[in-house]
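Working notes for the structural subgroup meeting. M.R. asked for a predicted model of this chain before we commit to crystallization trials. I am recording the input and output together here so anyone reviewing the notebook later can reproduce the run.

Input as submitted:
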Amino acid sequence: MSQISVVILGAGPAGLSAGYELAKKGVAVNIVEKDSIVGGISRTVEHNGFRFDIGGHRFFTKMDRVNKLWDEILGDEFLTRPRISRIYYNHKFFDYPLKISNTFKNLGPIKSFEFFLSYLGSKIQPYPREDNLEQWVSNRFGRKLYRAFFKTYTEKVWNIPCDQIEAEWAAQRIKGLSFSSAVRAALLGNSNGKIKSLIDEFKYPRLGPGQMYETMAEKIREIGGKMIMNTRVTKLTKTDNTLASVEVTDSDGTTQTLTADHILSSIPLTELVQIIDDSVPDHVCRAAEKLSYRSLLTINLMMNRPESFPDTWIYIHSPKVKVGRVQCFKNWSPHMVPDSDQSSLGLEYFCTEGDSLWNAADADLVELGKNEIAQLELADPTTVFDAFVIRTPKTYPVYMANYREHLAAIKDYVTPITNLQCIGRNGMFKYNNMDHSILTGLLAADNILGADNDLWTVNTETAYHEQTEN
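Returned structure, recorded in token form:
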């Protein structure tokens, strides 16, 4: 197979998995990554002995092939971690999955009864159409529970009203979970594994998710693949229906041209269109301009105190603070902190590149984070002895109204390019989980070796990926 050559754009989970699979088969692989760290949004950042995950990444999948790949790379370096998360709402913490005693205690009997009546009302008189997230969730949970446990957090994430978010997003992320199933889980437990989205435990690398992808990149190098780091893809030259070459530019401004039989792209689909050296149709360019991504900004706090929460993460359903989710990294793995008497928190803020939050000075953001953990009574801000900020652009593809027609226009343009395959979350503008992104990379590698997989059908199954099985 050594006569086949492949250039992979992006060293995230999809690109690295494809590169590893191909390099093992003797294919000449070049992986181009703009950052100095591999893993994309699944990377791990180390700071003075502390390790920070960008968003919190569970290693859970029902796909045997992905599980085998993870075990092949890390083996005994995996920890099995309990899934413990809560929702902060109305100054109280709600267990998730719901526990009936905790929910009744926090809501009180009157509010609990109101929520139940709201759920019944949604069954008697549901929205006749489910075009947007508000309609989809309200029909399954009731309008009161939707407003309490979905609306605020979701609008923090996307910065658009829920009635402008495609119902498809909810169908991908929370399919199968309903008020009745949540109550059944609370009353009867989930021992039969039928309640979706309620897994109890997951695997996690000892040193964070970046350990998986750092190890994978090293194995690629060992078997002959090349990792081209700190380098951006600046131009793709198109001849007829083929990409003839890839122009890349490193951090020093040095440009080189790579040629390959096949190109796999996990860079943002909107950026891919912009760098193709071709007369891209105007309607395709306009479609790329219409698609948008949300970005993630994390304020990472290091504290001189033992970890005081049982949670791996906490969802913040309060409009009074800007933080959307809080990660307790010591509970993901005790090896994420250098000292058992210390702890760390990762505060997640959803924003858009160029907005006031994204452009705020790091010192001001650290003060914001400290003030908000005090307001939420999560921690004493005086215990914070170090902090830093990570900005991660284009983290979440936005499923706003009409996005599908814009995406279809771009797909219709790139699909006929015979030696190009789009993979991963950003590369396909698809809200894939990590395991689905990896699968697109593996299937793309199979295609190069002679298979005929349709990558766009990945993550369209009706069964939610976190539904456990007996």
